[in-house]
Amino acid sequence: MTQIKTVLARGRIFEEEGDLSLVDSPERLFTHPVFLQKTDNGYTILYGFESVAQLRSSKAVFCPAFILPARWSLSKCVTLVATCILRSRALWPVEIAKLLDLFTRNGLSKSKIAELFRQVTHIKLNVAVAKQYLAILEIESSLQQYLITKKAPLKTWRLAAELPSEIRRLMLDLIVECQPTLSLFEEIARNVSEILHREESAVDLERLNLVNVLKNTDYQPAEKLAIIRGAVQELRYPNLTQHTQRLSNLLKEIKVPQSVRIDYDKNFEEQKFRIEAEISSADDLKAFGDFLTGTEKAKLERLLKIL
Amino acid sequence: MTARIDRRISKIYITAEAERDELTDQILIAYPDARKIVVASDRSLDAIAKSDDPKRVLLLTHSKGQVVKDCPGTAVPYLCCRYQVINQTLNCPLDCTYCILQFYLNQPATIIYTDYENIFAEIRKKGESQPRRFLRFGTGELGDSLALTASQLFAGKLIDHFAYGLNALLELKTKTDRIDSMLDRSHNGHTVISWSLNPPVITRREERLAAPVSARLKSAGEAVKCGFPVGFHFDPIIDIPAGATHYIELIEELYSRIDPGRIAWISLGSLRFPPAMKEKIIERYPHSRIPYGEMIRGLDQKMRYFRLRRIELYQVIYRKLTAVTNPPFIYFCMESPAVWRAVCNFVPDSNAHLDYLFAESLWRRFPGIIAIQPERIDYENVPKSVETKTESTTV
Q: Which ipTM value was assigned to this complex?
């Protein structure tokens, strides 16, 4: 047990999970481990920032913790902590990024960095991998928290890291205002990223006026999300979106009997549609016959033409 | 160009069975600076050459299975032309961003089959099974036909083989200007040398190590002077801003240098690739813009441009290509009946019909190449064993 007043905070590498408001007990050491390193004046936190903060706020005097020797290098300490965390969960991409950053800034040789990195993460380090992970450090901490909470895979972290900072801030506003699911966040972020790559400028994005949509108090969060999603989708796939809209408008005009369903390839690769009719009575049969030969026939012909 | 691509070859593995082949000797002479390593079999290569760049390493060996195959084409409803592929060179030294080979082939080396007599036997067998059908063969499916001297040496032998006695035609497809060693060959009109074309603005960005378009067209002119029929492939057509203008300028340049009457065929095909390739292109070629086009998942599960956009692009190109007297035979590679109809106002009835149309066009436009006047029935009645499959994944 360590006296909590001697514990000092330092740069955080690892994130904690689970309910930290559990009662203070020796078992806590295993459910929410705290790793400290001995220093001249006391201890610095390697892992367990939230636990220590929680203990402090509950006026605890002692903190159950694993104490690592002062003579150990920081790299050695964090390697041990990472190994311990890995027993219960995979490291978040941002944690891996921070580890790499730490190894890099500690003046280790390239081969030593690669060795340590592989030992902890089981990832083979090369220039491209290093670049990808270090870019993750640029992501704003609140966006990092969102990605951690949503258990985002590495590709989503990379996607977020690749976005220009002003777009990331916009995505943060979107998260705050609309709380999108991870898949929706990914879809919007990917489309925005691809528009930027294609256009090589943000001109079109500015035209979307996303900020105003987000700030508009007339819309509910779900409406804002739908507007933004649709606008970004249209900008990414303009021809497909417009064509879908045309089809949708025409389909609304066609009076389809209840027992009949019209289906077509949503990617418009085929210039044809399918009609499925469920016939369970003479009335159904008559309605279906009228549908094919009556006033709706011309609309069906138009549908075929548009497809 | 010549030296540049061949100079990149740093190592040549030779399996024991290929060591004494005539083609092996010729290839080894052509690459005096490459390290030569004899290996027991190509299976042992996986361990030895694991970290090699397959574009810089050759493996000379014998084929284990069929080398001459029906082009895998793509799934229905897209139409294919029932081409025959000769997969003697597996991989390509060029570095095109959109190329599926770099993701599709996973050998540690560029494979060159040196047992060419066996390959010739396969070609003859194909012809004998359908003597009245005029077959089109090509080596440019899993590699560039002429980019490597190792491929050229085989191509030279193929030209001789196709020149007389076969009711068939050879196509050598390339993005290079490396045709000098082909020009003096006695081809008897039975070899078409063809080039993939794209506007320079695209080739500069997406086709690293390939020859500039002007050099390709200059080579095509030289081939025509030597009596070769030539072909062109506008494939993959890439949707770029002001793309129509660029393609029109390219066609004007093409026709200003090459008499359309000497062009055996021109293919049109828009960019397409398996969905998984998108991320790989982004990773490998971050400068490339091709992953960001307006693409949908086609009925064959490949990513393609939205159909109406494809039609717009094709219409511009098709109109320009056909606005001459005696226009070349123009066809689509892996396109849907809806696209054929919208662009050409015509749809082949089937893959067999398209195959027949090639022969009919050659019969009419290049008298003397085809010995037997093509009859449609001979193209419909393909023996089951050699019928083109249209369900497999394509390259």
A: 0.82
